[in-house]
């Protein structure tokens, strides 16, 4: 259970997300705030957390194995942040070793503003791993309703992302307790945030205008247990490929493909 609100300082746990049950299914509601937005639009990486969490929690029910995200895609419409964003998941394939779900994210009027999918692998708990929590959906709802320490700075800054070479999309970040999940690794949506930051800097340099990232396609290749994590980018037409590398794995840990649009004039 790597997506439940974890600890008092973990950044994912501090996102303003609440849970509820609708016909026995988990629905997560995000209340956007300026710290989570870019030019008035909710960041794709923040929506990626809601997607990842509602999907992962819905299928994680084995205390002998971690349900770890292997891939995640999110495609959003860059509309002004609504009052609430709601997410629900649907299982489209479930096997003995992996599961895939689709997720729709809607505004408070029920209009679809983003959609995506997430795949998970069942990874046996290893000796020395942190204790694996089992949280039924009913309890997860209560955990999402607890009081949190508010995020008071833009989330890029809150995460400690440092720009090394903006035009080339090189950023770096330490794997701090604030960014880890209960498995002790960099939380999946924090990976998305790092890639989003690198992609928007690289796209802004190429386009000569502020950019909002609207599409994220992530492939998680290895655990990121220790930092620093550093990015490098390549342009492939209108797509930016972001490769994240970590010192603990000694190789690329995540591949991300991102698209963006120029921000509206406000």
Q: Termini distance?
A: 40 Å
Helix-strand topology string: EEEEHEEEEHHEEHEEEE
Strand order of the largest sheet: 1-2-6-7-8-5-11-14-13-12-10-9
Radius of gyration: 17 Å
Largest sheet: 12 strands, antiparallel
Report on this model:
The protein has 266 residues and is α+β, with helices and mostly antiparallel strands. It has a single domain, classed as Porin, CATH 2.40.160.210. 18% of the residues lie in helices and 40% in strands. It is built from four helices and 14 strands. The strands form two sheets. A twelve-stranded antiparallel β-sheet has the order 1-2-6-7-8-5-11-14-13-12-10-9. The relative contact order is 0.18.
Report a brief summary of the structure.
This protein is of the alpha+beta class and 266 residues long. The chain has helices at residues 44-59, 137-143, 155-158, 188-207; strands at 17-22, 25-30, 37-38, 41-42, 65-76, 85-94, 98-106, 112-124, 162-165, 170-173, 211-220, 229-236, 239-246, 251-262.
Layout of helices and strands:
Elements: E1 17-22, E2 25-30, E3 37-38, E4 41-42, H1 44-59, E5 65-76, E6 85-94, E7 98-106, E8 112-124, H2 137-143, H3 155-158, E9 162-165, E10 170-173, H4 188-207, E11 211-220, E12 229-236, E13 239-246, E14 251-262
Antiparallel strand pairs: 1-2, 2-6, 3-4, 5-8, 5-11, 6-7, 7-8, 9-10, 10-12, 11-14, 12-13, 13-14
Helix pairs in contact: 1-4
């Amino acid at each position: 259970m790597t997506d439940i609100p974890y600890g008092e300082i973990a950044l994912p746990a501090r996102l303003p997300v609440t849970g509820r049950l609708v016909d026995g299914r988990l629905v997560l509601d995000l209340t956007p705030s300026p710290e989570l937005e870019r030019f008035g639009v909710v960041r794709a990486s923040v929506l990626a957390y809601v997607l990842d969490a509602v999907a992962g929690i819905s299928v994680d029910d084995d205390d002998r194995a971690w349900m770890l995200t292997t891939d995640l895609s999110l495609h959003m419409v860059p509309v002004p942040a609504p009052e609430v964003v709601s997410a629900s998941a649907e299982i489209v394939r479930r096997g003995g070793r992996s599961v895939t779900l689709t997720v729709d994210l809607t505004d408070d009027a029920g209009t679809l503003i983003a959609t995506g999918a997430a795949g998970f692998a069942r990874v046996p708990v290893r000796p020395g791993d942190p204790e694996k929590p089992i949280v039924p959906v009913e309890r997860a709802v209560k955990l999402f309703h607890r009081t949190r320490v508010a995020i008071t700075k833009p989330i890029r800054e809150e995460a400690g992302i440092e720009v090394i070479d903006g035009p080339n999309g090189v950023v770096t970040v330490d794997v701090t307790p604030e960014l880890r999940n209960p498995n002790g690794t960099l939380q999946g949506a924090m990976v998305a945030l790092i890639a989003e930051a690198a992609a928007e800097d690289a796209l802004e340099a190429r386009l000569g205008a502020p950019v909002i990232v609207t599409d994220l396609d992530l492939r998680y290749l290895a655990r990121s247990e220790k930092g620093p994590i550093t990015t490098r980018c390549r342009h492939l037409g209108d797509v930016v490929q972001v490769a994240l590398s970590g010192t603990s794995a000694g190789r690329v840990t995540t591949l991300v493909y991102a698209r963006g649009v120029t921000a509206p004039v406000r």
